[in-house]
Write a structure and sequence with these properties.
It comes from Thermobacillus composti (strain DSM 18247 / JCM 13945 / KWC4). The protein is mostly helical and 309 residues long. The protein has 14 helices and no strands. The longest helix is centred in the N-terminal third of the chain and has 33 residues.
Length: 309
């Protein structure tokens, strides 16, 4: 038998016009500039954190350390409060994110159901809280009367339901096919079974998006520590420790010799400028490492309401 040869279809090259080439060139150039503007502050801070502290005072550090050293990181991690503050930050981020996402999803599912007669009233009541605030002093008095001052749960309960997150999740649930929820009810599933077995799995993209928003907010929050728990070292967070360094320009409560005489005696040389950069990197890297795992869900979640049947 004669061998049959099958010719593969040739790909036609699409010729781009001069206008399209110019448009792509401008787009790529602007995106490269945006990338440089976005990454440069972080890379510069990273370079300063790994550079010799006294050498950094001369300036001229851009994207690469001039004199490599780990003394800045050794100084930071020798502080007794850093590990406790890091543990508190991790706990408040994990616990706060899980509880906020779960509670917001439950409320969002409730107000998304057309059979719930008070859903419009409850929705409007939630939205009004975004425009009307009781103020700092009434909020502090409320927190004090609830007995949350000096407690870890002051980081969790006040922000348990985020209205913005609530609206996002509700919009996503409303765009789910009604046939799926109706089929579950026909099969005898109650509201809790429907919520846990059907709604939550289908809402994975939006829940991941809200978890990212909430996690970043919990990790970066420091003002609530300043208001309610500034007198309790065991409840301090990593961001609050960073804020104290940025505010008072002092790397630590320990006495460190910054003078030339101290350098001749072989003492570790650190400066507030270098320690600020080091603390910024220490506080930023953990939350940056989480983002790649949630990126695909983040893109899907941001498209909520973009397509409707």
């Amino acid at each position: 038998m004669a061998e049959m040869t099958i010719e593969k279809p040739r790909r036609r090259r699409v010729r781009m016009s001069l206008g399209d080439r110019i448009f792509d060139a401008v787009n790529y150039t602007l995106l490269c500039l945006l990338m440089v503007v976005t990454l440069y502050p972080f890379l510069n801070t990273l370079a300063v954190s790994f550079n010799d502290a006294t050498d950094s005072l001369r300036g001229g550090i851009y994207l690469w350390p001039r004199k490599w050293t780990l003394e800045n990181y050794k100084f930071v991690f020798e502080e007794a409060t850093i590990f406790q503050a890091t543990l508190t930050s991790v706990l408040r981020t994990v616990i706060g994110t899980v509880l906020t996402v779960f509670c917001s999803a439950m409320v969002a599912y409730t107000i998304s159901r057309p059979e719930y007669v008070l859903r419009k009233f409850v929705t409007i009541a939630f939205i009004l809280t975004m425009y009307i605030n009781g103020g700092l002093i009434p909020t502090y008095l409320l927190i004090r009367d609830l007995g949350l001052i000096g407690s870890f749960w002051v980081y969790i309960w006040p922000g348990l339901i985020g209205v913005f997150n609530l609206i996002i999740i509700r919009s996503f649930i409303e765009n789910l096919p009604d046939n799926i929820l109706e089929s579950a009810k026909i099969d005898g599933a109650g509201e809790f079974r429907t919520f846990f077995s059907i709604v939550l799995p289908l809402c994975t993209p939006v829940l991941a998006t809200v978890a990212l928003f909430t996690g970043v907010w919990q990790w970066n929050s420091w003002f609530d520590v300043f208001l309610y728990n500034s007198s309790y070292e065991h409840l301090s967070t990593l961001q609050y420790e960073l804020q104290k360094i940025l505010q008072f320009s002092n790397a630590s409560t320990r006495s460190v010799d910054f003078t030339a005489a101290g350098a001749q005696q072989g003492l570790s040389q650190v400066t507030p400028y270098a320690i600020r950069a080091t603390m910024t990197i220490v506080a930023s890297v953990p939350i940056i490492m989480v983002y790649p795992f949630l990126q695909k869900y983040f893109v899907k979640g941001m498209m909520v309401g973009g397509v409707k049947e």
